[in-house]
Amino acid sequence: MRWLVAALLLSACSGRQRSAPAAPSTVTADDETVVAVVDGQPIRVADVRRQAIASGTTPRAALEALIEAELVAAEAARRGLERHPEVQEGVAQTLVKRLLATTFEQEVLPAHVTQAEIDQMYERNRGHFDRPTLVEVHHILALADAKTDPATHAAAKARAATVAVRAKAVRSVEEFDALAAELSDDKIKLRLEKLPPFPRTGAMVESFAEAAFALSGPGAVSSVVTTSYGYHVIFFLQQISELHTPRAQAEEDLRSSLFEKVVRPREFQRFVDRMMERHRIAVQPTLAPLESPPQ
């Protein structure tokens, strides 16, 4: 396991500049050519080349770093440190990373996302790629529908007019929102609604949508707007510009998202399932606390 210690040391010492000890002045292009041996552990041309690239140093400096790393790894092994639990854990983690890098990561690619999956996700999220202009507003409603008596209708309209006057003086949406509770009483209940962004047509009552889209900008307040629900005062938060993403670009974004959130986790579970079929697993739940402790 001394290779792990060597790798850790190389990582910690990368970037050091120093003079190299005596070494062959020339090496062949063969990656398997041995250029140094430390306690029987060969250092090959390929090792030197990789270390030079990783550390940004010359081949001679890279060779020196490799020799030092092997020396420290050999000393660690001589002292029995390779049997330390932390070292064992580090070896296991490194093996897992290496296994995934050479198998799963090379076999499972974004190309595994099917066109059917992309089409289905596009239809579910069409609004994220193709939408008209939207507005976002809060509004305070004095309820008065078709079943409300004329006197209550008149009182609700008058209360909405009071809200509109007070709303013209507010300096924030929080102050506007507070008016609903402040101006409500047992006779007229005002309802505050924080609406999600909506388009000009198809989502709201026509008179309400028309009034919302007519507001000039953030902080603008409408006069009293009448609908079949009652009397509204609208506070404008923001306008969201229309968006028309080309289908090809949308599919590229969806493929990437589906790969990370759906396909990769799904294929990894299959990868694990295949390994479970090749190995023996014995679980003894009576020997370990598998349930969450009581709170």
Chain-averaged pLDDT: 84
Strand content: 5-15%
Helix amount: 40-55%
Report the radius of gyration as a whole number of Å: 35 Å
Overall morphology: elongated
Strand pairing plus helix content: what structural class?
A: alpha+beta
Number of domains: 2
Number of helices: 11
What does this entry look like structurally?
The chain has 295 residues and is α+β, with helices and mostly antiparallel strands. It contains eleven helices and nine strands. The strands form three sheets. Strands 4, 5, 6, 7 and 8 form a five-stranded antiparallel beta sheet that branches. The chain has a two-stranded antiparallel sheet with strand order 1-2. A two-stranded antiparallel ribbon has the order 3-9. The protein has helices at 2-13, 45-55, 59-78, 85-102, 104-107, 115-124, 126-129, 150-167, 173-182, 206-214, 247-278; strands at 34-38, 41-44, 130-131, 134-143, 190-194, 198-199, 225-227, 230-240, 243-244. α2 (45-55) packs across α3 (59-78) and α6 crosses α11. It folds into two domains: 2-107, no CATH class; 133-241, Chitinase A, domain 3 (Roll), CATH 3.10.50. The chain is elongated, with a radius of gyration of 35 Å. 50% of the residues lie in helices and 15% in strands. β7 and β8 (230-240) form a beta hairpin.
